[in-house]
Amino acid sequence: MKKLILSVLTFFVVLSASAHAVFLETALKGAKGKSHAVKVIYGEPDEHEEISKWWWYKEGMQVTLTLIKPDGSKESLTTTVQSDHLLATFVPDQEGVYHVSLHRDTERKERAKIQYQINAVATIHVGNATIGNAVSNINNELFVYADQASYKKNKEVSLTLYQKGKPAPHSFLQIIAPSGWIRWVETDDQGVARFTPEWKGKYFAEASKREKVEGKEFEEYSRATSMSFEVK
Known about the structure:
The chain has one helix and 18 strands. By secondary structure, it is mainly beta.
């Protein structure tokens, strides 16, 4: 019994430790021909850490985002350093669903056995077209996919966690509501996590996965990912 209690406590400590994450913060609706801003932030969705405190960022380091347009074409977005975030902008030139992704390995200390990897995705809907809202348009090694532009309050939400292109079953997503409410939801056999939102507004989802590797200078990949979606 003591061993079981310790295991449960350790489980929740590990989950709680992932509260700080890298997010792509942006408006989930855009307009064709108008500049759209995307922020890279670290911390909590409503509490950004100063860049100097970011464990994964070095002064002067160039962070590049990938913009995937509705037609599947890609473009690199260069970020500029602000006080507590990195900023990138783009101008949508077509209607449909755009994805902006961050995917990078952090610097690993010499002889460290774990390689940390950051994944973050933002989905922006421009106009009423749904073209571009496809799993195949996102190439991150770990990401959460929302198949709708927005969801309804008190109606079930389904989110799918993908790891290396395949659904990740029996994994946990952390859901953060606009009210600050936090809930852990487990994916089913098909990698789908379901829950019913009680508030309107922007929600965030986070997940992390570890993978043993061979033939590299390290033994394990530790990947983390985040995304946001809207509830009306």
